[in-house]
Automatic annotation (TrEMBL):
It catalyses: 4 Fe(II)-[cytochrome c] + O2 + 8 H(+)(in) = 4 Fe(III)-[cytochrome c] + 2 H2O + 4 H(+)(out). This is Cytochrome c oxidase subunit 1. Pathway: Energy metabolism; oxidative phosphorylation. SUPFAM superfamilies: Cytochrome c oxidase subunit I-like (SSF81442). The keyword Membrane applies. Belongs to the heme-copper respiratory oxidase family. GO terms for cellular component: mitochondrial inner membrane. Residues 1-215 form the Cytochrome oxidase subunit I profile domain. It holds the Pfam family COX1. GO terms for biological process: electron transport coupled proton transport; mitochondrial electron transport, cytochrome c to oxygen. Keywords: Copper, Electron transport, Heme, Iron, Membrane, Metal-binding, Mitochondrion, Mitochondrion inner membrane, Respiratory chain, Translocase, Transmembrane, Transmembrane helix, Transport.
Amino acid sequence: SIWIAVLGTSVWGHHMYTAGLDIDTRTYFSAATMIIAIPSAVKIFNWLGTFFGSNQKIQPLWCWTYSFIFLFTVGGLSGIILSSASLDIILHDTYYVVAHFHYTLSLGAVYGIFCGFCLWLPYMYGISFDGMMMMAVFFCFFVGTNMTFFPMHFAGLQGMPRKILDYPDCFFAFQIISSLGSVITFVGFILFNYLLIDSIFFSRFLGVSFYNYHS
């Protein structure tokens, strides 16, 4: 984590490859951005290493956790491609960049929040949630978010620019898939709100034995 923070302060130039940087500066920032993938990969293997020997079951907490690592890894792999100055000039301001930072930042943060929710809700508020309903929320989010953002990689590779109101018909299939994914994700959001209402207003309170067992 320390090396990620240290190297992260020296790779800001990869956002400015098309701003007129000279070739030597672009070469430095390309190399520095590729190097930061090393401590990031170590961090991922550290996360995976903490699971060895643990008693894992198919439950919402583990599903959200493994999905977070998977999505962060996908975002990191696309980041290695964008670290190349020559490729970034081609892919700059396309949907490939949109897919990259959503996988790395947006989805990583959202799935991390859900991990914390599943772990800390019983401890902080003394209430539980419907496990099957949370699995349905996870399924909708995982399928929906990947349908929304993964096709953007292919749209970006074909040159679809970001920040436009309309697009050529050749990108229609990618947009349809992404739109369907957004609908599925929204359904998951509705289910999550219902899960909160069910947990709070239908008396899913935990007894003292829960705290004695887990303390």
